[in-house]
Amino acid sequence: MRRAIVSDEKAFFAFLQERWPLFLGKISDDSQLRETSLKYPGPDTLPFDHHDIRVYIDNLFVEGKLLPVQKPGVSLDISSWIRSGIVDSGNADTTLRISRLFEIIEKEMPVEACRYSDWIVYALKWAELTALVHCAAHEERKTRLLHIGEELNAAFVQWLSTHYSSIINLSPKNPAMLHHVPRRLARELDDDKKRRVALLVVDGLSLDQWVSVRQILKVQNSSLIMRESAVFAWIPTLTSVSRQAIFSGKPPLYFPASIQSTNSESNLWRQFWEDAGLSRLDIAYQRGLGDGDVSSILEATIHPGKTRALGLVVDKVDKIMHGMQLGSMGMHNQIKQWCQGGFLNSLLDYLLLHGYDVWMTSDHGNIACQGKGRPSEGVIAETRGERVRVYPTPELRATVARDFSFAREWQPVGLPQGYFPLIASGRDAFVTPGASIVGHGGVSIEEVIVPLIKFERG
Predict the structure, then answer these.
(1) Domain boundary among 101, 129, 161
(2) CA-angle at 203, arms to 286 and 223, nearest 5°
(3) Is 109 found in the same domain as 99?
(4) Closest CA to 281 of 306, 300, 304, 311
(5) Is the pLDDT of residue 229 over 90?
(6) Which of 160, 188, 290, 310 has the smallest number of Cβ neighbours within 10 A?
(7) Which residues have a Cβ under 8 Å from the Cβ of 387 and sit 6 or more positions away?
(8) Could you tell me which residues come within 8 angstroms of residue 132 by beta carbon, excluding any fewer than 6 positions away?
(9) pTM of this prediction?
(10) Does residue 209 carry a pLDDT above 70?
(11) Is the pLDDT of residue 186 over 50?
(12) Sorting pLDDT into bands at 50, 70 and 90, what band is 326?
């Protein structure tokens, strides 16, 4: 049925979305639901209740790919498969969705033999659950989430240690890592000489925080189409490592001179696009975004008829993170408040209005951690982060690692010479014992797998 009607996945889900009210109207004799207008060709009603189909439909609502329909006062058993596709008043819908997501997460946890794409699919579901739990005050659910997260990240780190190096050189057609993203955009510009692309990097935005942002964007702009996926960040998940990999289109091995800062990003971005055949006048870059009037901010950066490759950095989330004392719940609350202010929606609208293909990603995610002790290594550490320390030799790293059993000596895959990370495990951090922080630099799924979103006008 799917191939006979539409070939695009997003359109397929939209087709299912507009047929769902017709199905509910048919089984409940509700004339309002039956009068839903249709945009997508195909049969008016679909057999959602067929025993081979309904289990998949249930999961699509639970995982956020389909949105439930408003139908207050419906009388259905909470265990009914239809219940996931109906919004009622109160918290019953959220409770049901959280319960079903917990079941899916516990049942489908990837194993050692899984591919990188399996981890991305799973991370998207984990993000949906994490966002729901962090946005609702329920200690029992948070405890359950933490326990699953410990098992999940232990399995994820084991998979990374074996398979991470194998995804670095994959084709950029379907980006697996952050440095693949600009290569994908370059292919699109090469195919169409009139095309223009904008790459928006929201520094520090995790996949579960994107879920909260997405919900607000849907309310602010109902015509916005968001094609969601995810990619692997660079390890260690530091801004100077992973964000430079984005703008250079290369592994960190190729920018050893600037590995400790982000000051060369503009030059790396311009060099990438010049190598791809654009002139210097076709390329623009700006960072430090997050507030203010979008058109006033960008008018000095973008030449509307000329700029073809635009790189932008929004650092508001990273600033929120580094001042955060209220954990993951506080992160979600403050990111929501910022997003409700409208800057991100205005930025997307401005870029789409000026004819850009708009992509958004993040250089790394973040995770709530507890301090386990701060190394006193003086000047021998070249990077002294909360989740990672970097040393110039493996011997110096090993000396410090002996006193910190919670830390892991990460193999420097794709990194420059003389760059040896010591990474905190689990939810531990190199800060004062017992102190709570939200940090990044480590190898948790929350830090490593980040959103990759394509925006379009509906």
Answers:
(1) 161
(2) 80
(3) yes
(4) 306
(5) yes
(6) 188
(7) 236, 237, 367, 369, 423, 424, 429, 430, 439, 440, 441, 442, 447
(8) 94, 97, 98, 101
(9) 0.85
(10) yes
(11) yes
(12) confident
